[in-house]
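TL;DR need structure tokens for one chain.
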Amino acid sequence: VGHFDLPRMQSAGVKIQFFALFPDITASLSPLRQVLILGDYFWEQYEESQEIMQLITSHQSLLQLLGLKKCGALLTVEGGEVLEGDLRMLRVLYRMGVRSLCLTWNNRNEIADGVAEMQTGGGLTLFGREVVREMNKIGMIVDVSHIAEKGFWDVLELCEAPVIASHSNSQAVWDHPRNLTDEQIKGIAQKKGVIGLNFVADFLGEQGSGLDQLLRHIDHICDLVGDDYLGFGSDFDGTDNLLAGIDDVTIYPELISFLKKRNYKDTTIRKICGENCLRVLNAVL
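>> reply
TL;DR here they are.
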């Protein structure tokens, strides 16, 4: 059944979903071929769903979507190894409709080191710098989730547009390599970017933690940098270990109720639920 489908997306009131094409680096097929196959499957499904869904590929298509009752899809790729060290592959993905690239997964690729390689101290490679510049040029969102810290700071120094950490949490609240330090959170805020909270239990707190633990991450990030830089990233269908109390995408109305009970203002809730993300989309696309 999974965590997500279009009927549940609609019932939960989700307006825009990022759909990640994620290659399995242990598979026999190359990452590029995997992503092309996944992309073809996405387009098959999208062509059957255009009455209720619209693909976001430009500022104009975003504005059009906001005036419709349809749901929006933004196509992304998780893991820059898919480019195989060839900048032309980035433009191929762009022509396929991809509008965001998570530069690394946990491993090292031609762009940079992931968090599993943190001990090497490796940052952006020369190719990685070309990728970031090209993404700025053509209008793609740079995603720094999974990247090792040296590469993170290289990206923030080089990138001319807001960046996102699409599915990351606070390391000060829960010390995990996939989470962001306070300085990294401040860096994303200075770039006018967004951090998408990850619902994976391992990245949030001790086993058995519930929604209160997710709200501790929200509290900390808002206390640190304000409410303009936070969103929901979820990682639905990217894990089999969601936080206790979260079963699927239909959790969002309950999360909103939790925030209201924590005395979060309606203006802040609207920012976290979508306005912050819309700001980045408007700035980059």
